[in-house]
Amino acid sequence: MNLSNRLSPKISVLLSGLVGGVLLFGCAAGSHLSSSPMSERGAPTAESASGSASDAKVAAEVPKVRPQLIKNASLEMTVASVENAQKTVSTIVQTQQGDVLELQDQTPQTERDHHTLSMQLRIPQERLDAALDALAALGTVQERSITAEDVSTQLIDLSARLRNLRKTEQTLLGIMERSGSVGDVLKVAQEVSRTREQIEQIAAQVSHLNNQVAYSTITLQLVEATATNRSGQPLGLQFGETWKRATTSVSSLTVSLLKLGLWLIAYTPYLLILVGIGVLLYRRKHRQMAISTQPTLSDAGNSSSEK
After folding, report:
1. Rounded to two decimals, what is the model's pTM?
2. Cβ contact 126:103 at 8 Å
3. Residues 177 and 278 in one domain
4. Burial of 224: CB neighbours in 10 Å, binned 0-12, 13-18, 19+
5. 118 within some domain
6. Same domain for 264 and 119
7. Is 210 in the same domain as 78?
8. Which of 151, 127, 187, 157 is nearest to 33 (CA)?
9. What domain range is 255 assigned to?
10. How many CB atoms lie within 10 A of CB 45?
């Protein structure tokens, strides 16, 4: 019991100091990565001037880190035949070790419409320029653009936080192995669970950014240069298309009528009630008219008898 009382405040203080130190160290690492190497901006002092030569030498020896860029491209072009261009695009994507993420084929509905095809491609970033050049050779380029986003600072900051959290996890696991009360063990277990959750979240962010850096997205839109000429089609093909449209229209009308019949059947009780009310009102009105015309007929009979 005495050992538990002495160990509990120690572990609480150790956990508080450990979590506070990790937070302070993570903030300091992020600010250090984004800050300038000079403490103040202005004219260099004598000490900085004396050390400029050595700093330049050290900077020359340090290898340059390649910026981590997320690149996305957009390409809009007209082609002679969308169908043939689509087959070529699939070949280019396979050659460049990419994938087709999305495809939307919009076939023309009238003679004035153009056949269009929209595709979203996933290409390794080092093969992006080669893929764009190969795609541009399919037709006439109307618009071509490339956007890039530098995520180097985000990756460095997330990696530093991930390393600190993993060190914290190892320290907490070491504390759990020590003897102590059940309450102390539960507190440490909660901190371990919280730290692991943060590690998984940051690791997922790092993986997502690395995936976006490794693979670029190309939004491709192909438009057929000339509209579909339906008047030049063979007569038999035109008759076939007309018959197909006619049968489709008849089938849709039949389905609509059947649906209407089902609705009428479902509402039959209400319709019968309305019809019954209408019949009653009609009979009542007819009776009132008959009653109102009876005195007129009797008066007419009396007048004729007097004569």
Report:
1. 0.51
2. no
3. no
4. buried
5. yes
6. no
7. yes
8. 157
9. 234-283
10. 10
